[in-house]
Specification:
The protein is α/β, with parallel strands linked by helices. The chain has helices at residues 41-48, 82-90, 98-108, 123-135, 153-170, 204-211, 246-255, 271-278; strands spanning 3-12, 15-21, 24-25, 30-34, 56-61, 67-70, 141-145, 173-178, 189-194, 197-202, 215-220, 232-233, 239-242, 260-266. It has two domains: 3-208, P-loop containing nucleotide triphosphate hydrolases (Rossmann fold); 213-267, Alpha-Beta Plaits. The protein is 30% helix and 27% strand. It has a six-stranded mixed beta sheet with strand order 6-7-8-4-9-10, sandwiched between helices. Strands 1, 2, 3 and 5 form a four-stranded antiparallel beta sheet that branches. The chain has a four-stranded antiparallel beta sheet with strand order 12-13-11-14, with helices on one face. Strand 9 (189-194) and strand 10 (197-202) form a beta hairpin. Helix 6 crosses helix 8.
């Protein structure tokens, strides 16, 4: 275990921002810390990285812990080229390894814009450079604060593929914050935080099994035929029938086929988890 917290609390004045957080960062895993804006994600990361002192509670750190961090707002010089930025950052470290930087440049695919000014790069390109900068000191734990915010879907996917590759090939442990609930699908472990409290944790599969079930959306020609089935009548007149699995859905469709005009089968959805836990959708 690289990091473990016990009843971690952070208050600002009378406001409790983090409320008795118990969290574990397991070596070699990719952990997604998910919540809406203002949920306490950045505050948690600042405490785990030593940038902010907890009000109470404990943080246990592995003796071999070495961290890198990608901030939500870049710390690189917009006027300098990518290469000059990286050389400048590498010069700050006692043990400089030119081969390591070259390997990172290749791994992250930033060769084509090394001589371009950092400020002229796209969001996805900047994020890749930020990751290289954070890995120059050869950390075993990489923190990323909202690394996919503001990126289009394809670029977000590419960043996730890069993180998975770094995890796999460099044995890197990764802790990232995000407000995209669907990104739990890409993580080994996800923590869902809301208003300073962790409401649920687990793999995407575990979260869906615990908090979300598949359902049928039925356009019924005769709703009375469904009197023996528990359903919710939606505003558009459709019936929402929650089921345990596709087998149960098929049985209902077979039994009620003469009273059905059309239907959709909706699989258990990670986006329904937050709604199930809090009673509201994740904004």
């Amino acid at each position: 275990m690289l990091i473990r917290t016990k009843n971690l609390v952070k208050t600002f004045g009378n406001k409790t921002v983090i409320d008795h957080l118990n969290l574990e960062v397991e070596e070699g895993k990719l952990l997604a810390y998910i919540g809406t804006n203002g949920a306490g994600k950045s505050t948690t990361m600042k405490m785990l990285t030593g940038l902010l002192k907890p009000t109470s509670g404990e943080i246990e750190l592995s003796p071999n812990l070495k961290i890198g961090m990608v901030f939500q707002d870049s710390v690189l010089d917009a006027e300098l080229s990518v290469l000059d930025n990286l050389k400048s950052r590498q010069s700050l470290y006692r043990n400089r390894d030119k081969n390591w930087m070259e390997k990172l440049i290749h791994l992250t695919g930033i060769e084509d814009f090394l001589n371009q000014a950092y400020g002229t790069l796209s969001g996805g390109q900047r994020r890749r450079v930020d990751i290289v900068r954070a890995l120059l000191n050869k950390p075993n734990l990489l923190f990323l604060d909202e690394p996919t915010t503001g990126l289009d879907i394809q670029t977000r996917k590419a960043i996730w593929e890069l993180l998975r590759r770094l995890q796999r090939e460099e044995k890197l442990t990764i802790f990232l914050t995000t407000h995209y609930l669907e990104e739990a699908e890409n993580a080994d472990m996800a923590y869902i935080i809301d208003r300073g409290k962790v409401l649920a944790k687990g793999s995407a599969k575990e979260l869906k099994e615990a908090y979300s079930k598949p359902y049928l959306l039925v356009d019924a020609s005769d709703a009375s035929a469904f009197s023996d089935v528990a359903y919710q009548l939606l505003g558009n007149g459709q019936l929402k029938i929650v089921v345990n699995d596709s087998k149960e859905a098929l049985q209902i469709l077979s039994d009620k086929r003469t009273a059905i005009n059309d239907f959709d089968y909706v699989k258990a959805n990670i986006n329904d988890v937050f709604l199930s836990i809090t009673g509201r959708e994740m904004a």
